[in-house]
Structure formats: structure tokens, C-alpha cells
Specification:
mainly alpha
Length: 192
């Protein structure tokens, strides 16, 4: 390995199994954002997403042998762990409302107040629509469309066949389009 080459996840896992704390730090820095964003899109609340993310990495550091490289990549394993934590912790009767900071964190930095308001409303509507999807559809949509995971990796995270991922994703996209069409923001029309 050259001085500039980053160690692979497999190499880091091997070092982690040997008790190398620096390897854990590298794994954490490499995967924390993806794991957190996935958890946030599944549960809709930053506090819950942060807790699930923390528990995911604590599990990895306490029990590194739970990751089996023969079953898939480290990223898929971590996403599977956080998925299970969020799924166990969610309440089927009510989805948490997204935190205001989460809904507007990625808003455009357009200087006009109207553009900023519309962008925030659009992101909030999209976020609410995603959160209103059934959990199975939501996780397929977030993994494949937002996290851009290949179908095989998404299937490994969810624990189902690729065909099921494709079916859920197709249904999620159709339902999301319906939801967004129902709640389309009002358009300002000008007459001359």
C-alpha cells in the first residue's frame, strides 16, 4: 500500500479485529455521514438518527466479528444495523415529525427570500412525503435513490431478494409521485 492509498474497509476491519482503535476511527469517519443520513431519512428525527448511528458504531467496536465480509461490504453491514435499530425503535402509529433544522439543512443559498422559502417548503414537502411512505418502501427508496446503493447492496441491507427491492422501489416511487402531486406548492402566477 502506498503512502497516499487509503486502506480498504476489509483492511480496516482486519485491524479493528486486532484491537486497532485508529482503524475504528477511520471506519467511523468514512461511513458516519452515510449511516446518519440513512437513519434520518428512515425515522425523520435528528435525535433518533444520531442515537441509532451511535449504537451502530458501538456495536461494530464491541463486536467486530459480527461483520462477515463474505456476506457483503462494510457499508451494507452498517446500513443494515442502523436500519434494524431504527425499525425496532419506530412507532407504527406515528412517524416522528422531522426537526426543522433537518428539513431546511440542505436548502439552496439563493439570496432571494421567496426562493429560499419555496426551496424550504419543497424540501419539507419531499421529506414529509418520504416519511409517510410505508417503512418497506421508504427504506428501498432511501437506499437506492438517495444513498445510490446498487440493488444487490440494498437487498443485503434489507435482507430480501433483489426482485423485492425493485418492486418496493417501483411502488415507493409511484406513491411518492402521488403524494407530491397532492401537495404541490401553490404556483405564483402573474398576469400582464
Amino acid at each position: 500500500m502506498s503512502a497516499l492509498a487509503q486502506p480498504t474497509d476489509a483492511e480496516l476491519h482486519h485491524r479493528l479485529m486486532a484491537g486497532d482503535e485508529a482503524a475504528f476511527t477511520q471506519v467511523y469517519r468514512r461511513h458516519k455521514d452515510v449511516v446518519y443520513r440513512f437513519a434520518l431519512m428512515l425515522c425523520g428525527a435528528s435525535g433518533l438518527a444520531a442515537d441509532a448511528t451511535q449504537e451502530t458504531f458501538l456495536l461494530l467496536i464491541r463486536e467486530p466479528a459480527r461483520f462477515d465480509p463474505a456476506r457483503g461490504g462494510l457499508s451494507a453491514f452498517l446500513l443494515g444495523v442502523v436500519r434494524n435499530l431504527v425499525r425496532r425503535g419506530r412507532d407504527d402509529q406515528a412517524v416522528a415529525a422531522p426537526d426543522e433544522d433537518d428539513a431546511t439543512a440542505d436548502c439552496s443559498h439563493d439570496p432571494t427570500p421567496l426562493a429560499t422559502l419555496l426551496a424550504g417548503e419543497t424540501l419539507n414537502s419531499l421529506h414529509q412525503a418520504i416519511l409517510s411512505l410505508p417503512f418497506a418502501y421508504r427504506e428501498a427508496l432511501v437506499l437506492c435513490d438517495l444513498q445510490e446503493l446498487p440493488y444487490l447492496d440494498a437487498a443485503n441491507v434489507i435482507g430480501c431478494p433483489i426482485g423485492t427491492v425493485r418492486s418496493r422501489l417501483n411502488r415507493a416511487r409511484a406513491r411518492l409521485a402521488e403524494l407530491l402531486a397532492e401537495h404541490a406548492p401553490l404556483r405564483l402566477e402573474t398576469t400582464l
